Amino acid sequence: MVRQSFLPRWMHRLYARFFGYFWLPCPICGRCFGGHEGVHLLYLNASTGQMVCRACRDEADRKNRKNRFIRGNLRWIGSGMRIR
Predict the structure, then answer these.
(1) Residue 3: enclosing H or E segment and its boundaries?
(2) 46 lies in some domain
(3) Burial class of 15 by CB neighbour count within 10 A (0 to 12, 13 to 18, 19+)
(4) What does the alpha-carbon distance between residue 37 and residue 19 come to, in Å, rounded to a whole number?
């Protein structure tokens, strides 16, 4: 498994809890991660997706390409995402 950070997982969990981020299992590998650890999405359809951990980013990108949800179709505008 790819090492995601030099900090132990309990410190990430504490940070997520203290600042109000989620702490949930990754939908691909099942390893728990926090909402503060990056934005990597596995798209479920054209408008919704699930965050995945950093270690599963490449697998999520492969599944998105297979399902024709390419990251380039989305862009950040202000505080939210919109489809081009």
Answers:
(1) none
(2) yes
(3) middle
(4) 12
Is 33 buried (19+), middle (13-18) or exposed (0-12) by CB count in 10 A? buried
pLDDT tens-place string over residues 23-53: 999 999 999 999 998 778 888 887 788 999 9
User: Which tokens hold the place of 47?
Assistant: 């408008």
Between 68 and 78, whose confidence is greater?
Answer: 68
- Determine the structural domain holding residue 29 and report its residue range: 24-72
Q: Is residue 56 part of a domain?
A: yes
Structure tokens at 74: 């989305």
Give CA–CA dist 78/49, Å, rounded.
19
Q: How many domains does the chain have?
A: 1
Q: Are the beta carbons of 33 and 12 closer than 8 angstroms? A: yes
